[in-house]
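User: Quick sanity check before I run a bigger batch. Here is a single chain. Can you write out its predicted 3D structure?
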Amino acid sequence: MKNIIAEHTPFEHENLEYINNSLNLARQQRASDNLEGMMSATLIYTNLVEYLADNLLQNLHHAVHLASSRDFQATFFMKNQDTIKKGPPKPLGKLVESLGRYEFPDSSGFLNLLEKFGKNRNNIFHGLLKTPKEKLGDVDNDFVALHDTAEEILNKYNLITSGMTTVWTGFVARHQTSLSIAEKDAKIQELQEQMANLLTVIQSLQSQLATPIQEIEAPKGKTAPIKTKAKKKNGKK
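Assistant: Done. Predicted structure follows.
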């Protein structure tokens, strides 16, 4: 379990370039100033928000699984991450419910944003065809507000996961060395202080989230190069 913990890279993203390209496309579409562009952007933003919520949930579950399995010698622990991946993707409401079972930096702020996004998205699409043509301008304003909320969710996700990655790195380092109980307690207190400082930073940056220009950040850490097998020469190794 020690090696698995050390090798785990939190908040990895498959197809990161594709996701960020889609995000940039949504930003272009929302600037097109027409209903079709707004709807296209909303579709992308909706998928992005659901992806970020699911990614956070999967990483929280996996990290707690690894930590509990390591600390209790794999005698009892949370079920593995693969267990909650079975079945169709969860809708946003279910993701919010599942994330609510965890405590993490600015969890209430993040969950409130997810709930706000889901509610406003539903209001838009459930009433879109019922809106008179002369009032479609009001719908455009609703789209803009929804897109801004998605951007705020993205910013908060980046802040939260960056701090959680730092804490995870400290957890790995703590279990890779032989420490006394007192030293481990000191490390735990240090991490708790880091978490408190992180929450303070997040709260101080709330005012900067109104007009963010960010992409999903790639996880920090070493990347192993792809190794190729050496070719045999003249039948010899």
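The first helix runs from residue 2 to 7.

User: Great, the batch can go ahead then.
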